[in-house]
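Continuing the series of single-chain predictions for the mutant panel. This is the parent chain; the variants come on the following pages.
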Amino acid sequence: MTLAGGVASGADQVFVLLKHWLVARTPGPLQALVSILLTIIPIIVVFPALFAVTTVLERKGLGRIQNRYGPNRVGPWGVFQPLADAVKSLTKEDIVPRTADHVVHYLAPLVLVGASFLAYAVLPIGRNMTAVDLDAGVLFFFAIGAATELAVFMAGWSSRNKYSLLGAMRAIAQMISYEIPLILSSVAVVMIAGTLSTAKIVEEQARYSDGLAHWYVFTPWGLAGFILFMIAAMAETNRSPFDLPEGESEIIAGYFIEYSGFKFALFFLAEYLEMFAVSGLGITLFLGGWSAPFSFLTWIPSWIWFFTKLLALIVAFIWVRGTLPRLRMDQLMNFAWKFMLPMTLVVIFAAAVWRFLPHGVAGSVAVGLVVRWLVCALVVAGPYVLLARGLERGRKIEKRTYRYAE
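Parent structure:
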């Protein structure tokens, strides 16, 4: 190995080597505990810190989009605004309705944040940097994600408020409806990779042909699956334009209307942690995880690639929030069941076609790749056009009439 290669490898594995060094200098009986703590603590420090940075970026970005300043008072250019928000949340009074179920009301935000953190256990943040490398990592991720729906219902039901209960019901209906296409879009990747392990899925994509990585997003079914996955992820995390559970003009703040102070801050934190986690899974499944897009860029540490991709997706989330208006509930459900669900089934079929088409045609691998691309693109494009036209025909656009109280 050359000197440059050794430096690059050291930078890539710096956190892994540091962990091993610290564990090796710990007394034998405590090594297992120290190893666990050194795996957990970075997760519960880095991603909440990223949450703080994201709130500033989002408010400043939305301000730019909407032609206003955004936060600009606390610290230079408003960068210390998250600290002010944290102090405010910690010092505000915690008000609980008299008729609320106090135990369930207290546990709901804790369950939500706990489930959000557990999802990071199977995400490969870098090479050899998966907290728990499970053979069924993808299955674990979605199983833990189901706990968030329980926490949402706990918050809405325990508050003894009709608005919070309605908000919880809307949130659960939305989360279940979009969780199905979210999972089905992942099935295509599992089929092609032949494994449920998130680490092995990344390794399958970390191979190069002619300098280009084998990312699944570079295939027709992978590109369609990634777009469907991210749309479902926006709905699953209640991001705009799918933020109906907290419709201000209809049900005020939704399922957490009766929460204040630090409990409300926990709901806010959990929403962003879920967004980071599902974005991380999208990066793992479709964007090669920690791998570089080109072979000549592999000298850059793998964890830098992961967080670069994560920041790019965060910017996309912010851009969409500042651009698109909120959907109606009927539009939301129609889109999930009449378009998203059928399209994810089409993506699974297209992935099967990609897998079983011959890799070479007329003795040429390049010609075979072009043929596979064209066939799979047609398999995806045809149903897309038909489903989109079906949704258009189902729209009832009538002349608006105004009625006044007499």
